[in-house]
């Protein structure tokens, strides 16, 4: 079954959460939710399969402002996004992807590893090189048995610009081949970047894509219902 993951990023006010949860109830068994950490408890209690947008680099200790995987796990998360490009840009997550993947493995949490190139890297034809490098960094010293990779071209995130289906197919299928040949692992590959109810039908034609990581559009329950409808066929 295809994964439909909603990354709410740093959105929704506490006062807006109850209505959002109510509006999403009808599709709660169809989506994975990645709300801001302060709302994880609300989402779990409302019956959503929930993940965190990030985790701290240790299980506990002196890490001001961070939230640990053990704390999040006790709240009920099943997944965690690791290495989202916004974390790599505004924090120094490139350095910690490896450690965060290790923490996910140790704690039985499914990691969703985000990889993807900048616009310049895309123009210079380096997309796969960047993706492979980011994938390799996750595998250093890690015994990964199950991994979901989200291919997210940075230039597509929040811009409304999406690569062609052929391009996404090429990247996704090569990522699968690369991980299988190098690490003997069959991975699922999601696509993330400006996915919406307007382009989902077209994206659905891409063979190698196993689901979507949806940012901006996930804030609209109406749009999410249309996406679920298209992907699940009901
Ligand atoms: P977007 O974000 O759908 O708003 O482009 C996707 C993501 O960052 O995961």
- Strand/helix succession: EHEHEHEHHEHHEHEHEH
Question: For the residues shown, what is the average pLDDT?
Answer: 97
Please report which band the strand proportion falls in: under 5%, 5-15%, 15-25%, 25-35%, 35-45% or over 45%.
5-15%
Measured as a percent range, the helix fraction is 25-40%
Radius of gyration: 17 Å
Report the span from N to C terminus: 14 Å
Report the total helices.
10
Q: Report the uncertain regions.
A: none
Give the strand tally.
Answer: 8
Q: Spell out which ligands are present.
A: 2-phosphoglycolic acid
Choose one word for the global shape: globular
Strand order of the largest sheet: 1-2-3-4-5-6-7-8
Structural class: alpha/beta
Description:
The protein is an alpha/beta fold. Helix content is 39%, strand content 15%. It has ten helices and eight strands. Strand 1, helix 1 (17-24) and strand 2 (32-34) form a beta-alpha-beta unit. The two termini are 14 Å apart. The mean pLDDT is 97. The structure holds 2-phosphoglycolic acid (PGA). The site of 2-phosphoglycolic acid has 13 residues, from strand 8. 2-phosphoglycolic acid binds next to strand 8.
Can you summarize this structure?
Helix 7 runs parallel beside helix 8 (165-183). It contains 10 helices and 8 strands.
